[in-house]
Amino acid sequence: MEDQKVLDLVKELVNRLLSQPQNPNPNPNQPTSINPNSSSIDSNHFNQALRYAIRILSSRMTPSIAADEAAMAESIKRQLVTQGKSSEALTFADLYSKFASKTGPGSINNKWAVLYLLRVVSEDCKIAKKQPNSTVSRGLPAIYDSQLSDNSKVSRDKEVGWSGGVLVLSKDPDNIRDIAFREFANLLKEENDVSEEVLVRDVLNASQGIDGSYVKYDGNIDGYALSDSIKVPRATRIMIQKLCELGWLFRKVKGYISESMDHFPSQDVGTVGQAFCAALQDELTEYYKLLAVLEAQAMNPIPLVSENATSGNYLSLRRLSVWFAEPMVKMRLMAVLADICRVLRGGAMAGAIHMHAQHGDPLVRDFMKRLLRRVCSPLFEMVRSWVLEGELEDIFAEFFVVGQPVKAESLWREGYRLHHGMLPSFISPSLAQRILRTGKSINFLRVCCEDRGWADAATEAAAAAGTTTGRGGLGYGETDALELLVAEAAKRIDKHLLDVIYNRYKFKDHCMAIKRYLLLGQGDFVQYLMDIVGPELSEPANTISTFKLAGLLETAIRSSNAQYDDRDILDRLRVKMMPHNSGDRGWDVFSLEYDARVPLDTVFTESVMSRYLRIFNFLWKLRRVEHALISTWKTMKPNCITSRSFIKLQQAVKVKLLSALRKCQVLWDEMNHFVSNLQYYIMFEVLEVSWSNFSNEIEAAKDLDDLLAAHEKYLHSIVEKSLLGERSQSLYETLFVLFDLILRFRSLADRLYEGIYEVQARSTDDKKKLSRQLSNRSAEPGSWASEGRKALTQHASKFLSSMSQELDDIGKKYSSLLTGFISELPGKAAEGLLHQSCQGSFLDTILETMPSYHSVRYSVFLNLPSCTLSRVIVAEKVYYERQVSTLKSFEEVDALDVPPDINEEEERREQVQHERAMNISNGANVVLLVLKIYATIRSGSIAIAASTLDSLLDLMAGGILWFTHLSMKNINIYQYPIGKLRVQPVGIVIFAAVMATLGFQVLIEAVEQLIRNEPSPKMTHEQLIWLYSIMLTATTVKFALWVYCKSSGNRIVRAYAKDHYFDVVTNVVGLIAAVLGDKFYWWIDPFGAIALAIYTISNWSGTVFENAVSLVGQAAPPEVLQKLTYLVIQHHAQIKRVDTVRAYTFGVLYFVEVDIELPEDLPLKEAHAIGESLQIKIEKLPEVERAFVHLDFECDHKPEHSVLIKLPSSQP
């Protein structure tokens, strides 16, 4: 019904276009009836026009302009306005608005086509009006005109053209067009052996990888080609060659898919490879659909070739090239990817495909994105499973995380690693590392920690990232979502892992335990352990029982503060005996080990524990050396040897004994200084500093890798700074040689004192003491302890000489080794061992250790900064001055036991010399006073007067000092029970006070002269000569007396020397001031007097204060107390403890109070003898006037004397 209606409308349209009404209808309201059978319209002409119209309407030809309805309407309206038809333009605009607004049922959908048709018809009508003889009639071509001759047809054919967008054709009554078509077809058949329809079908077959009738696969050229024997135009052959490329590409893609899927069961194609093949197969399926459509179109004949050609769909080679444009692009990409992925798999395959997705063509980009979604789906599923579940679902080794079976302690370090060859390019290395660490943390928690709390952390991470823990949550192109998921999972799982390590497995406590026991930080435990295992370790290593050492270790733990540690920690501490040779001792092979179980053995691996063992061996050797030196000091205690026992020996033997003892003491002091500073450096500068840094890094650690790195840095710092690194290997070896030499010294010192004990016991004939002391010592064959005194003296001399020689040898070797060690420090030691910004360091301290080091000091100092150099030199000088002073004081104490060789003649001679010095000084003062009085009168200078006054005071001072000297010599023990030693400081105070007062008087006189502004009269030439002669003579005499008196040991004579020196200064200043005041400016003279007066006041005021303090009772300096303590400690073996040592001034010398503790059961007679002998010995010291010794049996009581009770009450 609809088709008939459309046909009727087309007929009416053609009829209207062909009709030419002769008489226009005057009444527009009366419709014009048009009959196709009317005589005015030829029936044949109408039928041909109708068929032509139907052909045009049924064709798919479209105009070459864009289908824009509004533009077409605007063009028509503008054309009407241009023609001056404004009213018609308005009418058209109104009609178009109604036409365009009509929608719904019965409306026209393709409004643009209607407008275009009307415009073409209108333009055609205009052409017909302008050309009355034209064959164009009402917009349709005059297809058939029987009245035209052939010539006219030809001429009109020449005039045929395109006008107004409509093809104008002339009538062909003789069917010339069909004849031309047939002739053209015959021509094509002559030029082509094969029709185009056949070639199109062969090309379609080739595009499916199937050989056609004429287009077949040629293995020589590896592609489809048309046989050369087939005659076709060159353009056709080229087109076929281009179109057949699609078949060659298809063959490659299909071959790759078939090969991969055929090998799947037996070879590792992989899930990513399977996904890639599936994606390619899906694309080929779409390609097959296109080929099916093209096959259908290929069944239609091609126009201009078949006699029955119609305007329906057909497929030519040119059309096929258009259809193949998009599949060609896709097939090329798939073929390229197939070639690349043939040897790739997994992440490498996904990365290679991703590299081709970076394309600017939207078609290629969308195609690759669709392909990568399928290909990367298995890879992203592996990432999700690894990050959230810790499962490595990688049967075909496609994932960039590779696992291998290892022990639990090696799971973190060796169990999993990144396979960079499988890392796709769209996943960055940093992201891959986080992915690796996250899954590794889950497996570590699950396998090593036996923890399941990670599952909750993974669920929280997935929720925070906005995804799920199920499959399919991630895909290609969602890199941000992947990074967010990995970041959230890593943050939560790593935090949970560290919480488990810190809290459940107490990682920090175990680190502290290793520091305490393996790094010997638990001082009381280490000291007790060394004391109780020392005898056992002194035995050969092959005779030592490990079980016995384990028992001793347990004893040390229970006897020290280590017993309060966690029992789990203590159970991990064990004794370990290292492999040993036949000559090794227990000290050489003993060590401690700490059992770090899973999961702590991830941090404390075997290699780490071996480094800890190396550090322990070094620290143990250092502690052993320190322990040996302490034991040597106990042997060397002064109260172990009584020098009185050797009084009866020859003087040469006594000298050798004292020499050997002194060498041993000095060498011990040097070694102890070095070991103590090294011990301090290791414990505080290395271990404690490294531990502090390690603790801070533990708090800042975010994952287990950070924790491992912090521990590795901590351990490396200890190894390098403790001279255990490769860089310090030579220093390490030298240091151990030094340690061995110190141990050798310990043995030598033991031998020395053993021999001394024997000599002491034999010389005192104390058999019981001898047997008691020798009972625990193995007597060597040929012992000389029981021989006669003469043999004893000979053997003692020989023994002491031998010991001195060996001590010298050890001392020289030790100094040489220490010098070499210090020389190598700046070049090979770790940075912490050297100077740091001129602050104190181990090297700076060690540089002060030995006098023998001075010989190479400057060569080593070249490597030090100037500030360190100056500080070391000053500190060295101060240190050795203090040490020499201490040693001299000790020598003085030791000499008290030896009866002094008193030479009365020499003492008398010294006394005469002292008196002579005082007499000369007094006589010189009298003579010089007379001369200076004469010079003062002749010159009238105040400065000379001040100098004369000083001479007068010298005379008075001499009288006072002479009087005090005589008073001290005349002692009346009934009037002055403790002597007149206080007379000397009292006299000095009086004399100094007078001197200061007179100086103040001179000061006043000089100031008054300046205020009065009265210059002194000028001196004559004669006066100047007298002045020069007297003052220079006085200065020379005083200088000579100062040189003579300053070397005296008498205190009064030294006071004279000080006075003479002061006179030299005053004479020179007075002479200069007087001469300059006379020659140039008069005020120089009073200023010189003022300077001398101020000098006199300040100098003698200090003297007054010094002697006044000595009368008050000032405490003695630490050096004196140290000397007294040394004397008390070494006095007698029965002295258990020294409670108090107090010394204070009471005049020139000290009063000493000593409280000592003796055994409670000691008889009074012996206790009194010890106390009395100690008092006598103390009072032998030259700086001590009187000593008080208090004996007690305990030291916990309050002091016997209290100063506070004698103080005046604060109450009114």
TrEMBL record:
It is found in: Cytoplasm, Cytoskeleton; Vacuole membrane. Residues 923-1112 form the Cation efflux protein transmembrane domain. Residues 509-826 form the Gamma tubulin complex component C-terminal domain. The keyword Cytoplasm applies. Residues 19-41, 768-787 are annotated as: Disordered. Residues 200-503 form the Gamma tubulin complex component protein N-terminal domain. PANTHER family: GAMMA TUBULIN COMPLEX PROTEIN, GAMMA-TUBULIN COMPLEX COMPONENT 3. This is Gamma-tubulin complex component.
